[in-house]
Design brief:
This protein is mainly α. It is built from 17 helices and no strands.
Length: about 400
């Protein structure tokens, strides 16, 4: 094949356009998330507000496996287009309801649940689109660029979210996000054309298709290692970032401003790490990615000890390694998993996060309360480093190269 896809992402207008549209959509999502959370705490008790914010996770977890089956049967572009049309409808309905009736907890719950279902149907198909746009050797650069625009879009949208909801309320926030999804719909319908079609799974009952996905996981040791490892990536780092840094800032008297700066360091580091993958690619992507995550586990330990400067360095290292490793391993996952099962395997990796993350958060908090934040960071960080050594011990994983 000739053309821009042969010359690299720097001249590939199709991919550049998709990444730009994706970043805009991510900004709209972050804006909506901030607006939903802010509105919830204004109209409901703290407990109900927490329920609203978390309402989308349960239906997402329930529907994710179905989303994986759909992703393996249907063309990803059409699934993504249809789900985004549904998202626009939900947001416009929310805006109309707010303007005509007002804001209420049932409305917020309905909107959060609807978005959770949409996410579960959308994400497995979206996980396959990169493999349909670029060659395997370009996937690390594509994934790095995708992660970079996602982080920039999310940070920008979150920053704007408070302003938009303060000035125009929940209805205005819903309308703003609906516009971003409408742009995505337009690009998917008019411009995005997959170049490398994936094999499609045969039509069969949903439960049988789900079972076939688990059988594939059992029979393919390399895929199984990737799915299980990637499913556990965030279970150590997310509690450390969400709770560990906050507890360190409280105990050391650093203040809320310092807490925000430390979190920003993680985000900026992640963007830098992902951006580095646009131009730099190691010969063995999986080996480099897992070693970066071993380093990330050690940096998690560093959050709980030392001075403010040491904690800041640990946050920066966590960010850089997260951005680079997720780009490398995301590319390895998309390139090496059998295309007929890619959607189902992607849904399983996301399901691990949704199901186990609440347990990990509670466990980190309980350990920090009983033994101190330093001990909690040490246990979670060393556990992550140890888990990442497992795939490095697998010869099949060490041999993976996308060149």
């Amino acid at each position: 094949m000739t053309g821009p896809e042969r010359a690299g992402l720097g001249r590939d207008r199709l991919v550049q356009g998709w990444l730009l549209v994706k970043g805009l959509s991510d900004a709209g999502d972050a804006l909506w998330t901030v607006a939903l959370a802010w509105t919830a705490v204004q109209v409901a008790s703290p407990a109900l507000a927490g329920l609203v914010v978390a309402a989308g996770t349960v239906p997402r977890a329930v529907v994710l496996l179905l989303g994986g089956v759909v992703a393996d049967r249907r063309e990803a572009r059409w699934v993504m287009l249809g789900v985004n049309v549904l998202r626009v409808a939900v947001l416009i309905a929310t805006c109309v309801w707010v303007l005509s009736v007002g804001t209420s907890v049932p409305l917020l719950l309905a909107a959060a649940i609807a978005f959770g279902v949409c996410d579960a149907l959308y994400e497995p198909s979206a996980a396959t689109i990169g493999r349909q746009l670029v060659r395997p050797d370009q996937l690390p650069a594509y994934t790095g660029a995708s992660q970079t625009v996602t982080r920039i879009g999310s940070m920008t949208g979150a920053a704007l979210g408070g302003v938009v909801v303060a000035v125009w309320g929940l209805g205005g926030s819903a309308l703003a996000n609906a516009i971003t999804f409408a742009v995505v719909v337009g690009y998917l319908a008019l411009a995005l054309r997959p170049r490398y079609p994936l094999p499609r799974a045969e039509a069969e009952p949903v439960l049988r298709a789900v079972g076939r996905g688990f059988a594939h996981l059992r029979d393919q040791p390399t895929t199984r290692t990737l799915v299980l490892t990637l499913s556990g990536l965030n279970l150590a780092v997310s509690p450390a970032l969400a709770l560990g840094i906050a507890l360190r800032a409280r105990d050391a008297g650093w203040g809320a401003g310092t807490l925000g700066a430390l979190q920003a360091l993680v985000g900026l580091g992640a963007a830098a790490g992902a951006l580095a993958l646009v131009r730099w690619r190691p010969a063995r992507e999986a080996v480099a990615g897992f070693w970066l995550l071993v380093l990330q586990g050690l940096a998690i330990v560093g959050i709980g000890v030392g001075s403010l400067v040491a904690t800041a360095v640990a946050c920066a290292v966590i960010g850089v390694t997260a951005g680079a490793a997720s780009s490398l391993l995301g590319a390895v996952f998309v390139a090496t998993v059998d295309g007929e099962y890619l959607g189902r395997m992607a849904s399983l990796t996301r399901l691990g996060d949704d199901v186990l993350m609440p347990v990990a958060m509670v466990a980190f908090g309980a350990l920090a309360g009983a033994a101190g934040v330093g001990a909690a960071c040490a246990v979670f960080g060393l556990a992550m480093a140890g888990l990442m050594v497992v795939p490095l011990s697998r010869p099949a994983v060490r041999r993976i190269s996308l060149a």
